[in-house]
Specification:
- There is one protein chain.
- This protein has 376 residues and is of the alpha/beta class.
- The protein is built from 17 helices and nine strands.
- The relative contact order is 0.09.
- This is DDE-1 domain-containing protein.
- Pfam families: DDE_1 (PF03184).
- InterPro entries: DDE_SF_endonuclease_dom, RNaseH_sf.
Length: 376
């Protein structure tokens, strides 16, 4: 689309103008207006349209049809309508243009370096938050990019390799196939019997995209020391919720040995508030998922069947990621015996398609990444 200054070079033709508006305006007033426009230094289509609108506001004429007005000024109807409705290009604040003074820039840099020195890294979100706090103005979502470039001798983004890059790529064809599969296979299944499940914990926290993490320039090629690399206790939680909003019993994975009495004293009752499972590592495995299904998923669907007045003959569905531990032979047998359909998402699409992930766990992981850090 050309800008107004380009189309404003269109010459004003009195004959075309008067012919188009002959049936709308009083002939004498039309003649006077045409004469004024000929004598005017600015007779661009924009000026003509605005003058006609001023006359309309004085109730001297009826509102001309848009196509007629566009013909009168030899203008395209969309642009004529745009000028008539005063909906042209508006000046919008460019949040990215927020420039800090030299002192404020140095203050922000020292704040960033202080966080990096104490925690090992800082996220782009935190840099923008600090910039807004210091400047008192909003910044756009990529403001940190220029900030890092201005100080690339001190800080830099963690480098990614091909394997890490491939982990965030999603096949559009796979997503389309998954969509068709869901529409076909979940037809007739009540929302109370369709559940989304996902696992979260410190492992998911470490799974944050490294390209969003900023460290000292000398450390951009070094691997991060995630909490799982240290000798400290970690947990992993497998949980789910139905499309109706009903929640499953959380499946908590703890490293051996586990003292259930200690958790009971803390107010967590095994099998009531949460199902506590012991494992060599705090992450989901094929055996643990087979333990999750009969102790958390199947009881959930039993309650849901009773709630809607149905029984096991009404199929249920679980939507989860395509981790190999979720699709073992035993897990599929358990689902088949309980009339539960098991749907796995396309590779690398959990954070985009798994409602339980970005709806519930996404906020948890964001909070964890921002505030807990390495020294949690």
């Amino acid at each position: 689309m050309e800008k107004n200054e380009d189309v404003s070079k269109v010459e004003f033709v009195p004959e075309i103008f008067e012919s188009a508006l002959h049936d709308i305006m009083n002939p004498f007033e039309l003649w006077l207006l045409s004469g004024d426009l000929q004598d005017s230094d600015d007779s661009s289509p924009t000026t003509v349209i605005r003058m006609v609108k001023d006359i309309l506001n004085q109730r001297l004429i009826d509102k001309p049809p848009g196509i007629v007005l566009a013909e009168a000024v030899q203008y395209s109807p969309p642009l004529a309508s745009k000028i008539w409705n005063n909906s042209g290009d508006k000046k919008i604040e460019n949040k990215n243009s927020v420039i800090l003074t030299k002192d404020l820039e140095e203050q922000l840099l020292q704040k960033v370096l202080y966080i990096i020195n104490n925690t090992g890294f800082i996220t782009a979100q935190e840099i923008r938050y600090c910039a807004e706090k210091i400047s008192g103005k909003l910044v756009c979502h990529n403001w940190h990019v220029d900030f890092i470039l201005r100080h690339n001798d001190v800080i830099g983004a963690i480098q990614t390799d091909k394997i890490e890059e491939s982990r965030v790529k999603v096949s559009e064809e796979s997503v389309f196939i998954y969509k068709i599969l869901l529409i076909t296979e979940t037809k007739g299944i009540p929302v109370e019997l369709i559940a989304c499940t996902d696992e979260v914990g410190y492992q998911q926290y470490c799974d944050a995209r490294r390209r969003m993490i900023i460290a000292r320039n000398a450390n951009t090629s070094k691997p991060l020391h995630n909490p799982t690399d240290r000798e400290e206790r970690h947990i992993s939680i497998m949980s789910g919720a139905g499309m109706s909003g009903d929640c499953m019993l959380p499946f908590v994975i703890l490293k051996k040995p586990v003292d259930l009495n200690k958790y009971l004293l803390a107010g967590t009752r095994h099998g009531i508030d949460a199902y506590i499972a012991e494992a060599v590592r705090t992450c989901m495995t094929g055996l643990l998922f087979c333990e999750f299904l009969p102790n958390c998923a199947v009881p959930f669907f039993d309650i849901q069947w009773k709630l809607i007045g149905a029984d096991i003959r009404t199929p249920a569905a679980i939507l989860l990621d395509n981790c190999p531990s979720n699709i073992s032979e035993f897990s599929r047998q358990i689902c088949a015996l309980n009339n539960i359909k098991l749907f796995t998402l396309p590779p690398n699409s959990t954070q985009y398609l798994q409602m339980f992930d970005f709806g519930i766990f996404g906020a948890f992981k964001s909070k964890l990444q921002t505030f807990r850090r390495h020294n949690s």
